[in-house]
Amino acid sequence: MRELSGIGVSPGRAAGPVLRLAPPPSLPSPSAVADAAAEHAAVRRAVAVVAADLTRRADAAADPTAAEVLRAQVLMATDEMLTSAADDAVDGGLPAPHALAAALAEHRAAFEAAGGYLAERISDLDDLRDRLIAACLGVPMPGVPSPGHPYILVARDLAPADTAGLDPAVVLGLVTAEGGPTSHTAILARTLGIPAVVRCADVLEVPDLSVVAVDGATGVVTAGLTDAEAADVNDAAAEARARRAQSHGPGRTADGHPVALLANIGSARDLIGDVEGVGLFRTELLYLDHTDPPGEREQIAAYTAVFEALPGRKVVVRTLDAGADKPLPFLRLADEPNPALGVRGLRVARRAPEVLDTQLAAIAAAAAATEADVWVMAPMVATAGEAAGFAAACRAHGLRTAGVMIEIPAAALRAPSILRDVDFLSLGTNDLSQYTFAADRMCGDLADLLDPWQPALIALIAACAAAGAEAGKPVGVCGESAADPGFALVLTGLGISSLSMAPRSIPAVREALAAHTLEDCRRIAKAALAADTPEAARAAAQSSSH
Ligand code: PEP
Ligand code: MG
Predict the structure, then answer these.
(1) For residue 310, which of 283, 358, 273 has the smallest C-alpha distance?
(2) How confident is the model over 97-156, as pLDDT tens digits?
(3) CB within 6 Å of ligand 1 — which residues?
(4) Which domains are assigned to the chain?
């Protein structure tokens, strides 16, 4: 047996024979165009075939996120600008498949230059190019095999069109050579509950149909298993899933120390299962496509829908976190050379204070009309002055519990001073990693720096937790790191009082907590804190957890 290592992005274990994606079509050398009208028609036919295929997959996708991604690809495919750029290329002497490739290359360059969210969509565009070329050439669409038996899907990277239609009963696990923890592959695998490992370059050398085991928590892929060994892995995984499905109730360590397990949501629609409350309501997700500012009444309705679903429970509402990877068109923010370091999050209130004011008024009205225990927090706070200003604005609207997110190292370092004016802190470890390591959170190539087990990140979390303990005020974590069951033990040991994550991730974290006492967690945290590398921190935590 041989162990290959990557980054675990969707927990769980699975084993089976390896199969890979059908390869993308290769373009033959272009032949001279004899009949331009026929090539124009071929462009349109290819667009129609691909759009119909993607629409069918979107309709069949069980997961709404996957369906949305596919529909976005349909819009790209049917964009008039794409067809007319391909027509121009045909008129310039290229046959249909080459003309479409040239048109998409132009789009690709524009997306790359735009950076941020659009640059992240480049793999969607590349996938679209391969599909259009396959349709033109009349060869099979690139994509996921259907051999009639379960398997582990291996690929260099996966496009949304591939992951969206995946059936977890057939595709038992996913391993990619590229991609990162924030890639579509990772997000969709987590949503579908398929164990997944990314950035495992050596997996490309594993021959088709040889049997591997995937551990989506540790990132280890074991090659060279026998069928009997694979069956054992799958039996144990099925048992673990069944155990988890039965777990319910509030988060607690084995000795009863409470750690609230809360949900990250973007709207009332994301509330699935019985949750203790909401630890992060990303309000900006409601308005991503709005060109006019949402009015107070519209906002009251959206917030009320969430609050009404959780009477007596905590709901932490984050005020609009606009900018960088989450542009809000209605704010008409100026183009900035470096939007991740620009006017974003709470900073938008410097230019448009009325937007924050309307939002706080709407949250207060919805809170007054419902029974939820509403907390409010601001994103992207850098200084104690900003935190104090935000808390004062909340109180002026009658909102009693005001806090801030800690996503900027400057704020983490000044946590004791920030806590003098606010009621709680919530650590957004996605951005805190990005800003601590100067590493774009969307950049798969820097995934090692964005690893939450990095000693510098653990040290910042520890400092904030200690500040919370000193002030007697709660400090939670709502970044993706809270969903890693092993890291959740570290966070608990450091004194973090609530963990907020995608609802589907809660059972595995609940189970990990229930298997350890608070003293265990403290020992694990101490070991992780003393390590010099993420690998050493993981290993130290694992060996001190027994
Ligand atoms: C974070 O930065 O960790 C966070 C929870 O906020 P978002 O992912 O929405 O930026
Ligand atoms: Mg953030």
Answers:
(1) 273
(2) 999 999 999 888 887 777 666 666 777 888 899 999 999 998 877 878 767 789 999 998
(3) 280, 282, 321, 407, 428-431, 478-479
(4) 2-22+143-241 (3.50.30.10), 36-137 (1.10.274.10), 251-517 (3.20.20.60)
DSSP string, 484-499: -HHHHHHHHHHT--EE
> Measured between alpha carbons, how far is 157 from 361 in angstroms, rounded to an integer?
45
Which residues are found with C-beta within 5 Å of the ion, ligand 2? 407, 428, 431
Tens-place pLDDT, residues 155-167: 988 876 676 668 8
Catalytic amino acids? 184, 478
Helices (H), 170-226: 184-192
What's the helix, strand, coil split of the chain in %, to 5?
Answer: 50, 15, 35
* Separate counts of helices (H) and strands (E) for the chain: 21, 16
User: Please, which residues have CB within 8 angstroms of residue 101's CB and are 6 or more apart in sequence?
Assistant: 27, 129, 133
Q: Whose CA is nearest to atom 9 of ligand 1?
A: 282
Q: CA 392, 394, 398 angle in degrees (round to 5)? A: 110
Residue 53 has pLDDT above 80, yes or no: yes
SS3 of 229, please?
Answer: helix
- Taking the centre of ligand 2 as the mean of its atom positions, its distance from the CA of residue 433, in whole angstroms, is 10
C-alpha–C-alpha distance, residues 152 and 10, integer Å: 14
